[in-house]
Amino acid sequence: MSVMRASRRSISGLTPAAAAALSAAAVLTLSACGDGESGTVTEDGRLRVTASFYPMQFLAEEIGGRHAEVSTLTKPGTEPHDLELSPRQTGELADAGLIVYLKDMQPAVDEAIEQSGAEHVVEASEFTSLEKHGGGEHAEEEADGGHEGHDHGGEDGGDPHIWLDPVRYAEVAEGVGKAMAEADPDHAAAYEKNAAELADRLRKLDGEFAAGLENRRTDTFITTHAAFAYIADRYGLVQESIKGLSPESEPSAARMKQLQEIAEEDGVTTVFFETLVSDKTARTLAGDLDLRTDVLDPIEGVTDKSKGDDYFEIMEANLGALQQALGAK
Hints:
Blueprint: H1 2-10, H2 16-35, E1 47-51, H3 54-64, E2 68-72, H4 87-92, E3 98-101, H5 107-116, E4 121-123, H6 166-183, H7 188-212, E5 220-223, H8 229-235, E6 238-241, H9 253-266, E7 270-273, H10 280-289, E8 292-295, H11 311-326
Parallel strand pairs: 1-2, 1-3, 3-4, 5-6, 5-7, 7-8
Helix pairs in contact: 3-6, 3-7, 6-7, 7-11
């Protein structure tokens, strides 16, 4: 504003060329002041964070606290693997102060981020390790195909569902905290403090799962798609999935017969389904075997049907469901 006031006081005493130059300078100065940092922060100074889907959104919200404004590309109720982005959403990525995503989980997001040219991008799997997982310990391998599909996962077939392992998720939380501190140095201390506290809560949750599942009648559980292999690995369980890593793939008749045999041999009591994927196949299998059904939530999104309002509440519900299904005392 001071530049504009100066131009108004002195412009009458200048040559036309000088007056035009001074006016142009004033306009440029005001324009620069109004743009902020290319939209990377809000008007009240909060870091604009774009998350790819709920597990990344939850981290950013918990770590960002009052210093960040977090939005998500995957709206509640949307199956994240199926996400398609509009041109407008893709364009808005360039204005994000930080993008938090998990590669190979959502191909449309990976492509959009690559095109965006955004300066601050954090990819969650950089902070932990991915494992190769299929449909379960006894999952059949068929030459003709796809029911054990790995149609989201890296070239090495890495399972992206790392947030369901509290230990790996804690490692990601610490990494995201450092990335937010780098993107917004003025609030670095707050981000790092929040990340450390979140990691502590996640490691405590790990302890609850370990203790809660220690004394159990059976190790085996059946679920719709193979999202829970990290939980199985962490706590010594055996996951057998109907549909493999992809929730959209369809099981073969041979796989369904195999699951029936596994259920009988291992004393399986429950077939788990999810909130964002059709439960038809799970209920069919459970009906054929006279087993009960229950929800084991991969927490890819939170809706009114979720057994909790956030990650921790839903994970506690998952623990309770597993305890009941496995006969844990």
